Amino acid sequence: MSLDADTFISGHGSTQTKADIQKRIADAEARRAQVKEMVAQGKSLDEIKTAVGDNDKLNYKSWTEVCYEELTKK
Q1: Each residue of 3-59: pLDDT tens digit?
Q2: How far is the C-alpha of 6 from the C-alpha of 17, rounded, in Å?
Q3: Do residues 60 and 44 touch, judged by C-beta distance below 8 A?
Q4: Are 17 and 8 in contact (CB under 8 A)?
Q5: What DSSP state is assigned to residue 15?
Q6: Which residues does 36 contact at the CB level (< 8 Å), separation at least 6?
Q7: How far lies 55's CA from each of 15, 49, 58, in Å?
Q8: CA distance 39 to 36
Q9: Residue 33: which H helix or E strand, with range?
Q10: The model scores a pTM over 0.70
């Protein structure tokens, strides 16, 4: 967003507008907050993945798995 461009081309997806990027950021922040709340409630990774509809992969782990691991580091 700091580029202040009107159009973004990621190289691994479709062309997006500034509004598209802002929505993706807001959605990711809301989803992370949901995962964080469920971690605080003591939910397991499987329970969280079911609740948030985990279906995206970043290499070998889903976004939810990566977020869960970050939030449960000791």
Answers
A1: 788 888 877 778 899 899 889 889 989 999 999 999 999 999 989 988 988 766 656
A2: 6
A3: no
A4: yes
A5: -
A6: 67, 71
A7: 22, 8, 10
A8: 5
A9: helix 18-40
A10: yes
